[in-house]
Amino acid sequence: MSKRALEKHLESMTKKHVSDMVMDLYQKFPEVKTYFNFVFNPNEHKLMEQARLKVANEYFPLKRKRPKARRSVAQNYIKHFKNLGVKEELICEFMWYNLGLMHTFLEAKPQGLAFFKSLLSSYKQALQFVNYHQLLPLYKAPIIEIYEASKDWPNAYDFEQSLSLIDDI
Asked: What is the mean pLDDT of residues 140-159?
């Protein structure tokens, strides 16, 4: 069904019928419930704190011995935040928090090439996000810090090339 057809159909329905349909969606689909909970009670800082704890647990676990160090956990949160409409500044802050954790994890324990590639992907994504939303003045220090640290890494050239993604560094 197209957006226009849906709009036409909704206009022909009574307010009570639309209300019942929305309640049905709310009960059947967890994504709709999450979205409505966020829209009507946007507690972004609580959401960010929960995400930070989960991501930190990936690299520095409290209950298990070995860290999983999966980049996908943070990526899923970033995607979720974008879908919900969380402020860009908070999403960016979370991206750099994740990069900071990855960097600290790397300093604590040497990693293989796959981890460096993963770190590079997160770095590029954060650079593009910062540049697109014009937040460079806020994140110039972490950008340079990770770039400087990358000079000793196997993919140092790729980190240097990634700085071309931003306008004026």
From this structure: 92
